[in-house]
Structure formats: structure tokens, C-alpha cells
């Protein structure tokens, strides 16, 4: 199919094009870039949760970096005392403000390696927890669930979202193309719509807002369960889906990141793969910060 017109704002070497069928693909020198990339046969989700050294390479067309355990060490001094088998902090008051994830030695090493590995033929993916998931790696979640409306949890989530935003932007500068965000410890199903919206959802949207307009060609993918919770609570809305010809859903999401203003995707799963390139539907998410602000006010006034 002949392309109708390239989308403006992409690199001169790689262009996102709209075909006459309404699909998008990445072209290089007149050839379909998807045909040159190795098939995404290995599920991205299976690679998430790695030790941060990067996994999923070796012909799969992507490499996954980062882990919650690695960045949680920013709150433990000295960080060698961090043990994932136990929660390192006993209370929310110990989640200090101003923790610097980027300054951690392991994170610096990871970003250096990712920058060296960055290329047009291999997508660099960063696994990211949401603010509540990060705090729940530090403090027992059963303790947190009983303090959802507390000022201490609010302060802890604010500290986590600020640290995650700085870490995310450093990762984008290092060449990460897809930031995969999940907050499995919080959802509408677990907390209920009001509690989710006023605590975890509010914090997650405020974190994502810090990245809006600052991602360049990178894109944030919010996992299906988490993004569904945001939509249900009025903190985000899905926009019309983009149909993308790509080797895998992950590649399709990365392609959409090249579109001007396309910062957030969701309501899908990065482990989607087929045995051959196909057309994938990618849903763009539009954040609704006014919903987060309303939740912010309700939380501050103690409404139930």
C-alpha cells in the first residue's frame, strides 16, 4: 500500500506513515522497518521484573531494564541493607522526601548501559512501578491499606512520584523508548473507586503529568489493569485507537511514541505477540488532571 503522507515531527531516517488503509508503520529508506526487526517472540511481560541489567535481547527486538527492587534502595541507607524478602521500612514516616533514585550506583550503571545499547533496531524498555507500588515495596501493603486517607501516606506518595519523575526523565535521556508503568498493588477492584481515585490514582496521574510533553519520541505505556482503573475513576479517557502494523504490540506502542503529542498508551498488555507481524490496536490515553485535582481536594478535606 502506498503511504498517503508522513507524519511530521519524526526523524529524517525513520518516519511514521499513514497508509491508504489507515494503518501506521515505520519506514526506513523505502522499506518497512517492521520487516527488518526481529519478531517479538518473547513476551515482554515475562522479562519485566529483571534485576535491572537488561533482558529480552538477542534477536527479540527489545531490551527491558529496571526493577522496583533496584530503585527502592534509594530509601534505604546504606542501600546494601535492602532485602526484598522483608519490608525495609516499618512506617510511612520513614519514607523520606527527596530520595534520589538516579544517584544510585546500580541505576547509573544501568542508564549508561542502556544509552550504549540504544539503537533504532532495538527498543529499550524501562519497567516502572507507580507511586503506590513503590511505597508498598518499602512498607507492608497491609499497613498501607489501613491508612489510605492518612496525611502520612499522602506525603509518602508525593515523595515517590517526585523521585519517579526524575528517574523517568533520566531514562528517556538515556534512550529508553517505552516506559512500562504498572501499579498492581492498587486498583479499583482492590480499593474501590473513591479510595483509588483519592489516593493511588491521584498520585499516579500527577506523576504522569510530570512527564507530559517531555518524552520526545518515547512513550509511557500504563498496564491494562492500572489504566482501566484510571478510566473508570475519571482520571483518564481513551482516545480513538491507532492501528499499527508492527512485529509486536510493543513495537506498535513504540511507533506511536513517534507521533506528535502521543505520550501515553494503555488498556493493553505489552506481552501481546503473534508469530508474525500484524496490525495492532494501540489506545492513546488522555490524562484528566482536573479529576486528580478534585480527588486532591476531597482527600484534603477528609470526604468519605
List keywords for this structure.
single chain, 304 residues, alpha/beta, eight-stranded mixed sheet, four-stranded antiparallel sheet, 12 strands, 22% strand, disordered N terminus, disordered C terminus
Q: How would you describe this structure to a colleague?
A:
It is a single chain. With 304 residues, the protein is α/β, with parallel strands linked by helices. The protein has one domain. It is built from twelve helices and twelve strands. Strands 5, 6, 7, 8, 9, 10, 11 and 12 form an eight-stranded mixed β-sheet that branches. The relative contact order is 0.15.
Distance between the termini: 56 Å
Report the structural category: alpha/beta
Q: Summarize the amount of helix as a percent range.
A: 25-40%
Could you tell me the number of beta strands? 12
SSE order, one letter for each helix or strand: EEEEHHEHHEHHHEHHEHEEHEEH
Q: What would the average pLDDT be, to the nearest integer?
A: 78
Question: What's the gist of this structure?
Answer:
The protein has 304 residues and is an alpha/beta fold. It has helices at 33-36, 44-47, 68-72, 105-117, 131-138, 141-145, 151-173, 188-191, 193-211, 224-232, 249-256, 289-301; strands at residues 3-6, 14-19, 24-28, 31-32, 62-65, 123-129, 178-182, 219-223, 236-238, 242-248, 264-268, 273-287. The N and C termini lie far apart (56 Å).
Give the helix/strand layout:
Blueprint lengths: L2 E4 L7 E6 L4 E5 L2 E2 H4 L7 H4 L14 E4 L2 H5 L32 H13 L5 E7 L1 H8 L2 H5 L5 H23 L4 E5 L5 H4 L1 H19 L7 E5 H9 L3 E3 L3 E7 H8 L7 E5 L4 E15 L1 H13 L3
Parallel strand pairs: 5-6, 6-7, 7-8, 8-11
Antiparallel strand pairs: 1-2, 2-3, 3-4, 9-12, 10-12, 11-12
Helix pairs in contact: 5-7, 7-9, 9-12
Amino acid at each position: 500500500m502506498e503511504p498517503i503522507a508522513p507524519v511530521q515531527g519524526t526523524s529524517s531516517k525513520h518516519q511514521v506513515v499513514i497508509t491508504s488503509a489507515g494503518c501506521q508503520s515505520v519506514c526506513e529508506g523505502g522499506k518497512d522497518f517492521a520487516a527488518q526487526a526481529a519478531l517479538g517472540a518473547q513476551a515482554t511481560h515475562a522479562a519485566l521484573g529483571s534485576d535491572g541489567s537488561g533482558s529480552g535481547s538477542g534477536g527479540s527486538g527489545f531490551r527491558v531494564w529496571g526493577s522496583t527492587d533496584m530503585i527502592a534502595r534509594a530509601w534505604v541507607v546504606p542501600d546494601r541493607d535492602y532485602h526484598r524478602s522483608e519490608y525495609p521500612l516499618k512506617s510511612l514516616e520513614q519514607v523520606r522526601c527527596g530520595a534520589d533514585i538516579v544517584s544510585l550506583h546500580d541505576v547509573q550503571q544501568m542508564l549508561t548501559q542502556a544509552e550504549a545499547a540504544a539503537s533504532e533496531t532495538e527498543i529499550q524498555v524501562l519497567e516502572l512501578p507507580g507511586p503506590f507500588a513503590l511505597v508498598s515495596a518499602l512498607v507492608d501493603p497491609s499497613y498501607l491499606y489501613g491508612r489510605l486517607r492518612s496525611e502520612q501516606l499522602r506525603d509518602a506518595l508525593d515523595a515517590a512520584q517526585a523521585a519517579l519523575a526524575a528517574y523517568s526523565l533520566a531514562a528517556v535521556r538515556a534512550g529508553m523508548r517505552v516506559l512500562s508503568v504498572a501499579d498492581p498493588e492498587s486498583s479499583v477492584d482492590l480499593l474501590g473507586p473513591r479510595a483509588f481515585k483519592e489516593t493511588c490514582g491521584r498520585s499516579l496521574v500527577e506523576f504522569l503529568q510530570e512527564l507530559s510533553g517531555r518524552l520526545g519520541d518515547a512513550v509511557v505505556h500504563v498496564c491494562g489493569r492500572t489504566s482501566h482503573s484510571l478510566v473508570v475513576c475519571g482520571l483518564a479517557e481513551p482516545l480513538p485507537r491507532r492501528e499499527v502494523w508492527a512485529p509486536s504490540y510493543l513495537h506498535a506502542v513504540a511507533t506511536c511514541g513517534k507521533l506528535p503529542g502521543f505520550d501515553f498508551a494503555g488498556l493493553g498488555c505489552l506481552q501481546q505477540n503473534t508469530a508474525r507481524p500484524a496490525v495492532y490496536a494501540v489506545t492513546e490515553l488522555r490524562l484528566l488532571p482536573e479529576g486528580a485535582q478534585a480527588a486532591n481536594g476531597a482527600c484534603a478535606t477528609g470526604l468519605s
